[in-house]
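The step that takes the researchers longest sounds almost clerical: writing a folded protein down as plain text. Below is the pair of lines this work produces for a single protein:

——
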Amino acid sequence: MIDADAKKILEAVLFSSAEPVGARQLAYTLGEGSGAKLRRWVAELNEEYERTNRTFRIQRLGDGWQLRTLPIYKTWLHKADPVKPVKLTQATLETLAIVAYRQPVTRAEVEHLRGVDCSSGLRSLLDKKLIRILGKDKTPGRPILYGTSRHFLSLFNLTDLKDLPTLEDFDLAQPDEGTPQTTQEAG
């Protein structure tokens, strides 16, 4: 397949998909098994979009790709078609955070960390497609393993799980300006 044709097909597939399209699916669709070629075509399309001042780019989300509008246009997009926010209770959000940072994780591990039953929270997150079943653990009873989904990455605008904020990102070690500090002098 000629590169120009492959890029047109890649663009059409991404344009028509509401969810990120996996690299394997794209390679299969294009009849090209090379991840290097796929990455090159994506880079060339993004360079063209930037050169022609387009309002979108192809963004990597997990193991897939998606055509996404640039963040500076978010205000107008919400005015044109208000996005229904994903509503999560504090308990469900805590469960999601544990799954995101500890995956693959079993329900028992989540419950141990939270100290309460988490089955309804996990069910809610599965229904909202924010987590997925990764398989079964090899421990006795073969409990289900949970992990985050592509939809999770898309919703939180993450390319990869490595992009999750760390404790250092929250700057928790620094005291507030109004908080008194105590110091001990060596005696």
Summary: Confidence is low (pLDDT under 50) at residues 177-187.
